[in-house]
C-alpha cells in the first residue's frame, strides 16, 4: 500500500521561473520537438550552456560586455507627467537605451559568447522587427563571427532601416518569401538552414521559443533586466517591490527576463499581447518551431497567421514558460490592438519625451487602460519594461498619423 501511495504522490512543487524539469519542460510545455539532426545539436548547446553558466569566467566576461558594449545597467525612469495624469506611479525600465536600441542585445551577446566557446564561427538568426537581427549582426562584428539573418519579406519592407543596419554591420540578410512573409516563416527557414550547418554555426534564437534549451537559456540571458529593475526599484521606492510588473509579449523574451526578477515576490505580473497574435490568450496546445506551447490554430490544427502593427509581436504563439505561468496563475496575459498602441506611443512621446517601439507601446496602452478603469489602484506602483526605442517604427507611424 505504501509503495502504491508513493507512486501516486504528486511531483514536488516546481520552482517558478527556475530551471526547467527533465527534457526542458515547463509544466506540460516546452520540450525538444526537432528533427534528429537538430536534437544532437540542441544537446550540444545545452551542455555548453550548462558549463558556461556555471563558469564564473564566462559570466564575468559577459557582464563586462554588457557593461562596456551594451551600456548596462539601463536606467529606471519615473514617468512623472504620465503618472500624474494616470493616478499611478509608473516607472520605465529603459531597455531602449541599450546599444542597438532594444533588450535583444542582452541575449545575443550571451549566445555569441557561447558560440565562440563552442568553436562556432558563424551565427544564424531570424528576426521580425529587425532588432534581434541588428543585435546579432552587432555581436558577430564585435566577436569576429559571420552572421546570416533570415527575415520575412514583409518585415523587410516595414523595417527597411534595420535591414540597412544589419547589412552595414556585415551581416547577410536572407529574404523569406514563404507563407505570411513574417517572423514565423523566417524562423522556419532559419531552422531548416541550421540542419545542414550545425558543425560550423550556432543558431542564435531571439526569443524564449524553440527547442530546449533555448526558452530557458534565452530567459537566463534576459534575466539581467528583472534583476537590475528589482534592485533599482528597491533603491527608488520605499515599498521595495512594485505592485504591478508589465511587459509586452510576442514570443516573450523581454517579459520573461523581467518577470524572472520578480517571480518570487508579491508583484502581479502582466504580459501584454497584440490582439492579432495572442498566443497565451487565445492559443491552443500545439507544436511549432521545436517546442510544445500555445499557438493560434484553425479547426484542423493548422497554425494561423498572426497580425500586429508591431513586427515583433506578429508571432502566432507564445514561449512555453509563458504558457506555464498562465496556467499557474502567476502571470496574467491581456491584449491590446493596433490603434490603442499607436495612441499610447504618441502619449508617451508628448508627456515624457520618449518615442517607444510599437511593441512596448502595447504594454503602455494596457497600463493606460487599466489605470483608467481602476484595475490598477490609484497610487499603486507599476514597473513597465520599455523593450525598445521607436526609431524603427517612425516610417510606419508617419504613414498613420
UniProtKB/TrEMBL annotation:
<dbReference type="Pfam" id="PF00291">
    <property type="entry name" value="PALP"/>
</dbReference>
<feature type="modified residue" description="N6-(pyridoxal phosphate)lysine">
    <location>
        <position position="104"/>
    </location>
</feature>
<protein>
    <recommendedName>
        <fullName>Tryptophan synthase beta chain</fullName>
        <ecNumber>4.2.1.20</ecNumber>
    </recommendedName>
</protein>
<comment type="function">
    <text>The beta subunit is responsible for the synthesis of L-tryptophan from indole and L-serine.</text>
</comment>
<dbReference type="InterPro" id="IPR001926">
    <property type="entry name" value="TrpB-like_PALP"/>
</dbReference>
<comment type="subunit">
    <text>Tetramer of two alpha and two beta chains.</text>
</comment>
<keyword id="KW-0822">Tryptophan biosynthesis</keyword>
<dbReference type="GO" id="GO:0004834">
    <property type="term" value="F:tryptophan synthase activity"/>
</dbReference>
<feature type="region of interest" description="Disordered">
    <location>
        <begin position="1"/>
        <end position="26"/>
    </location>
</feature>
<dbReference type="InterPro" id="IPR006654">
    <property type="entry name" value="Trp_synth_beta"/>
</dbReference>
<dbReference type="GO" id="GO:0005737">
    <property type="term" value="C:cytoplasm"/>
</dbReference>
<comment type="pathway">
    <text>Amino-acid biosynthesis; L-tryptophan biosynthesis; L-tryptophan from chorismate: step 5/5.</text>
</comment>
<keyword id="KW-0456">Lyase</keyword>
<feature type="domain" description="Tryptophan synthase beta chain-like PALP">
    <location>
        <begin position="70"/>
        <end position="388"/>
    </location>
</feature>
<comment type="similarity">
    <text>Belongs to the TrpB family.</text>
</comment>
<keyword id="KW-0057">Aromatic amino acid biosynthesis</keyword>
<dbReference type="InterPro" id="IPR006653">
    <property type="entry name" value="Trp_synth_b_CS"/>
</dbReference>
<keyword id="KW-0028">Amino-acid biosynthesis</keyword>
<dbReference type="InterPro" id="IPR023026">
    <property type="entry name" value="Trp_synth_beta/beta-like"/>
</dbReference>
<dbReference type="InterPro" id="IPR036052">
    <property type="entry name" value="TrpB-like_PALP_sf"/>
</dbReference>
<keyword id="KW-0663">Pyridoxal phosphate</keyword>
Amino acid at each position: 500500500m505504501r509503495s502504491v501511495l508513493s507512486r501516486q504522490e504528486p511531483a514536488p512543487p516546481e520552482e517558478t521561473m527556475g530551471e526547467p524539469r527533465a527534457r526542458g519542460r515547463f509544466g506540460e510545455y516546452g520540450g525538444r520537438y526537432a528533427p534528429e539532426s537538430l536534437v544532437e545539436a540542441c544537446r550540444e548547446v545545452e551542455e555548453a550552456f550548462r558549463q558556461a553558466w556555471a563558469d564564473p569566467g564566462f559570466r564575468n566576461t559577459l557582464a563586462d560586455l554588457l557593461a562596456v558594449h551594451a551600456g548596462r545597467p539601463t536606467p529606471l525612469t519615473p514617468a512623472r507627467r504620465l503618472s500624474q495624469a494616470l493616478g499611478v506611479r509608473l516607472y520605465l525600465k529603459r531597455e531602449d537605451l541599450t546599444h542597438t536600441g532594444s533588450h535583444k542585445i542582452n541575449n545575443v551577446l550571451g549566445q555569441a559568447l557561447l558560440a565562440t566557446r563552442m568553436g562556432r564561427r558563424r551565427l544564424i538568426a531570424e528576426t521580425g522587427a529587425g532588432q534581434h537581427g541588428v543585435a546579432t549582426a552587432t555581436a558577430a562584428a564585435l566577436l569576429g563571427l559571420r552572421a546570416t539573418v533570415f527575415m520575412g519579406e514583409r518585415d523587410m519592407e516595414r523595417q527597411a532601416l534595420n535591414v540597412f543596419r544589419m547589412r552595414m554591420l556585415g551581416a547577410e540578410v536572407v529574404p523569406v518569401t514563404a507563407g505570411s512573409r513574417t517572423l514565423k516563416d523566417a524562423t522556419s527557414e532559419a531552422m531548416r538552414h541550421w540542419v545542414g550547418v550545425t558543425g560550423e554555426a550556432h543558431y542564435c534564437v531571439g526569443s524564449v521559443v524553440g527547442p530546449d534549451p533555448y526558452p530557458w537559456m534565452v530567459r537566463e540571458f534576459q534575466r539581467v533586466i528583472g534583476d537590475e529593475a528589482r534592485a533599482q526599484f528597491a533603491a527608488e521606492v520605499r515599498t521595495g517591490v512594485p505592485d504591478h510588473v508589465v511587459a509586452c509579449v510576442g514570443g516573450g523574451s523581454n517579459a520573461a527576463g523581467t518577470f524572472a526578477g520578480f517571480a518570487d515576490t508579491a508583484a502581479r505580473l502582466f504580459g501584454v499581447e497584440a490582439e492579432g497574435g495572442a498566443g497565451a490568450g487565445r492559443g491552443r496546445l500545439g507544436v511549432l518551431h521545436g517546442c510544445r506551447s500555445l499557438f493560434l490554430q484553425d479547426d484542423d490544427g493548422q497554425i494561423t497567421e498572426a497580425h500586429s502593427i508591431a513586427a515583433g509581436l506578429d508571432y502566432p504563439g507564445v514561449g512555453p514558460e509563458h504558457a506555464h505561468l498562465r496556467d499557474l496563475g502567476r502571470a496574467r496575459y491581456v491584449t491590446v490592438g493596433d490603434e490603442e498602441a499607436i495612441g499610447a506611443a504618441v502619449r508617451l512621446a508628448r508627456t515624457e519625451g520618449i518615442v517607444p517601439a510599437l511593441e512596448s507601446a502595447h504594454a503602455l496602452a494596457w497600463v493606460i487602460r487599466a489605470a483608467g478603469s481602476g484595475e490598477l489602484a490609484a497610487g499603486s506602483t507599476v514597473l513597465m519594461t520599455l523593450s525598445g526605442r521607436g526609431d524603427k517604427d517612425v516610417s510606419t507611424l508617419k504613414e498613420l498619423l
